[in-house]
Amino acid sequence: MAADHEPSPSAWAFLHNMLNFSGEKHQHWTLAQTPYERKHDTDLLSHSDISSYFPAIIHQTGPIRLDRDTCRSLVSHDRIAAFSFWQQLYRAHAPHAIDYPLWNWTMELLSDWDHSMEKSLPRLIKAGLFEFFEEVICREEFFYDFPALLLNIFEAIKHTFLSLMANDYPNLKRDDPGIKGGVDRLTAMVCRVSWEHRARLLVEQDVLDDRAGQLKQARAALHRLVITYYNFHHPADPEHLDPQIDYSAFRHTDYEHIRRVTFFLWFHYDDTLLIRNESDVERARAGILTYAIKSLNGCAADDPEPAAFASDILHEYGAVPVLSRLDSTLRGSKMDGTQLFRVQMLVQLLFLRTEYFPHFASSGVLGALREAVDRCECDSEIPVMHGSLLITALDIYGAISTYAATNDGRAPLIRQYDAIGLLSRCILVSAELDFPFPERCYQHIYEYTTFARALCERHGKKNVLRQALTKSVRWHWYHTLKGLREMEKAEPDVVKGRILLEKAWLSFGDVLGLDEGQEEAEYYRTVKGASQFCAWKECPYHTSRPFAPLSTCKGCGQAYYCGKACQVRDWKEGHKQACKRIKDEAYAAKK
Question: Model pTM greater than 0.90?
């Protein structure tokens, strides 16, 4: 039986190579700081190896041990010489080997790279800094050598870019074609190699050893490097839509590698690796995804590039996992209007495809998109941004409704996600703007009117979807008409748009058999009755008058409660959306 467990010849060979490879001198880096590491003098360098770089401070004649203290002293003395010596150590390095001189020197050289290199950066670039980074990254063993080297190289590149952004060097301008080209080429090379070895960066969550932790940190460092590259081209990204941004800066040679890795980093995003304080978590989750759209901006309608990228995504990740990740991002992120608009654009370009349509509802993305719009809309003070978010959300919902089965598109949008309420808000916002907002909003009213007409022709009044649509339209119909008619006078083009929207909205109600007089009476009856009863439906005072006066919702002033507990419960169970609707109506009436 014992013979059955004897290691195979190949296993013995593997162990031999791990313990003693590349001759008697070297061992594999995984054996460092373990009982299997043989002690030898590989961290000793001859006097001649170092003195030529630091002649003024090397006084001993014997071998020199490059421990952390010695490295720190030499590096701080002359950083240009330290860089040159670093190149020598790297080029003499045996792949995968334990190499304390290189490890210690790299750690000390890069430990203060972002601050100490500011004055030296022009000379370092002239001495071949970018070229050396490229040389190291292209080494076959780069991703499989000591993980701390991988991490430190990524961090050094990032801080080099940051120094170029933060400092005004006399002879080194960030907008110089040579500098821009170097940044683009180096980033593309990092991303190409990272993509080829991406499995190396995907360490299992339950693997907790030091090396795995360093690989996780390397992925985080790659994330920061990529973000810095994007900010290098547009460091002061505006907080509103800016058609003047030159997105062609992101379409340089090999840029597709950067975009591919950007999406990879979003898909495998890990808060624990990147965020140091809780206030940054919500904004950072969506940040990397919004950059993936930049190289696709400006693509013509017939440009094959978005379709090619979409195919790559499907092949690598699959439709359901991508939508699940998108749902998580939308729900867990705090995006400003610009960020959310970019995510919406990315959805339109990449995800409105046959493979995704059946899964939008089941993945939760339909609801997550609606919630993201609601959150962002509350914070938006720019009417055009407000309108753009609403219109684009309706565009996405419209495409899904057109191409997905009714149960996967139109039905959940009407019954679960209050698409009619979204349309109502879009009408009131678009009516304050000129072309193209009223025209685009009109198109969505027309599509719902067409759907309602077909639904009424094919199904009786007891049809569940028809009942849900009618109920939703009745809830929003009259208050939308009222809001349109009470708006202040405006320019002729804006008034023309309002008339267009009002006629279309009236037609929508007519198709469902709504009578304006009856709906007006019901609207005011509802508003008047609300002041006498608690708004929470499960409260005993919802149907009988309470003994004490009711308090009102501070947000809208039109929902009444017998106490704080009922107000909290009602907010969680639906008043949040209704309150927003009432506030929108009041806002439109005041303008």
Answer: no
